[in-house]
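Exercise 7.
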Amino acid sequence: MSAGIAISLFGKAGWIQQIILALLLTLSIVGFSIGTECFIGNNDRKNRHRVWMASSCFAILTSTLWIYSDKLIASFTALALGCALLWSGYRLVSYQNNYRWLGYVLIVRGFFNVLNAFDLVPLNIQYWFVFSVLVKTVSILCLIYAVQEKNRQRYVHAINSLSSGFVILDLQGYIHVINEAGAQLLGYPKATALVGEYVAGRLLGVNRHDVETYFQDFSLGKRGYPMVDSFILRHQSGVFVSLEVTASPYIEQGRLYCMMQILDISERKKKDEQLFYAANYDSVTGCLNRYGLVTTLSGLIARCDVDLSSFSILVIDINRFKRFIDSFGHIVADSVLKQVSERLKKFLRPSDLLGRLSGDQFVIVLTDVAPGESIEAASYFSDLVLGAFSQSFTLTHQSVKLSASIGIANYPEHGSDPEELIRNADIAMSAGRNADNKRYSFFEKEMTSYARDAMIDSALRAAISGNELHLVYQPIVDAYSNEVKKIEVLLRWSSCSFGTISPDRFIPIAEQSDLIVELGTWVLNQACHEFSKLKHCLDSVRLSINISSRQLIDPEFFNVIDNALSCNHLLPQQLELELTERVLIDDGPSVQSVLSRLSTLGVGISLDDFGTGYSSLSYLTRFQINTIKIDRSFVFDMETSLRHKNLVAAIIAMAHSLEMEIVAEGVETQLQADSLTEMACHYLQGYLISRPVLFPQLEEFVINNKRLSRSDTGNVL
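Solution. The predicted structure, written as tokens, is:
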């Protein structure tokens, strides 16, 4: 604008001068218009195009006008610039409070130009104004340069003081600004050497198409800001560095740039890899641990569902490895486990998996098995594994031989998730080892009952210390007087894991292991302890407790009985042990010796469920039996079957002839009670008398029972 004024006043008039003046005037007006819009943040490109088109038309009009009327040059220039200044000042005052005073200055300046266009300003003032504009323009430009340089230095110092890399890229992927930390990350000593470099040439595995796609997503905001990504950087020295890049938008002079913060995460990634390894791999063998195996299997299942393939899981258990650890120690055991894993790895294909579940259990996953071929593939591989165990394992000064058992489960036949597949393979391994000592076996649905029994057995072992067991008592009354003469102790289990479990379910499981001995000891001690609290009303009552064969042949059983009686101040005559006919069959001579000692001590012996087992009458003479209990099934059918009624009468008569007491179980109706009384049955037990009750209710029942007469027989509780 200043140059145009100078040319109009001091240059030689002519049509070339007029065209130059028209162009300068047009550029001035365009500069004010577009510059003002950018100043207030309006970067609409369509608006710029409209301004340029209007200005072009203005330049053509001005040039034509000046060629035919050069007298209008000064007035028209002043008027046009005045209007442009007024418009710019108005926009700044109206839309941007931060530049309001600049807007007021432009308005004043615009009024001066408009007044000058109409010759309202003296000539000497015009000369002064032109001179002052030229001088002030130069000084202001110098001041602006100084301020910009100061700001640039402050900006450079600020980004160089960052500990992380700082980079600004244009949307084509070229470096626009970079700090010293960023240059060092890229392997350059100076940041200036990287300005203008193409960033894709520094990132491993990133090409031009990737860069274009990245910045397209960035400019369109598809992923949201900030965008966080990880890259592998190829250092100038050839070293690879892991970088984390956080990208945000940056606008400069109306152009969108990508501002990035770059962090060297090599150490963090190394630690993450170490943590990942510790979380997913076994420290001894280097195989996948349980967590890593389950995670990998989850991905494998998803893949198999897509391509309709299958896989097999082999759970390999080293037999009697705990005994090996007890003999040689954990250090030697770890050495053997490493040898086992190395031998197993030799048979694996690249796609197969090897994991270690626990101390002595390994898992092999055979992948990419075609449907219908899983059995053959798993069998073949099991033979290879067992062959590896046939060779001795080397220790420090000797060698040892170990054996293994293998359980196999196939996906998807034997489970739909990793835990179920591993569990079923483990069940197959345990079931196979306990059935004819098979070396490997495939899972079958029938094996789940074995697994449930194992789970119940495990939970039962913790039931005593966990206070999950309790006792209930069922009174046995005299058939004639209705007085309580005996009380049978019954065990109940309320499991935290399985809920209430029937004795018919957990007692047989306990009898299959030594747990029945510990369980029976707890019942005996607890029952005697609670029974001793009611001695004031139970002086003539016997406590009847069920005993298993394993308890009878236990060397400490007699001492357990004696200790329970003495600690609770009970007489041997107050205790009666109930046995089944199966107990007498399992170990006749040993049982006979124990029963003889108990009988000598004064403890009563009762034969439970008489008539449902082998019912050999020789038991009644060979063993010291005091009481026979008629099974509830015979009592229940007395009302409908004459044969059962006659059989019950015969049993009662036989007991009388052998001078034994007789107890009828399962008495539920008054008609049954009356019939049994007529047959001279000594004692009655069943729901007609009382259901099994907790200990606090037992005392109440006994006290109320003493008040009843023979005619009052009925269910008291």
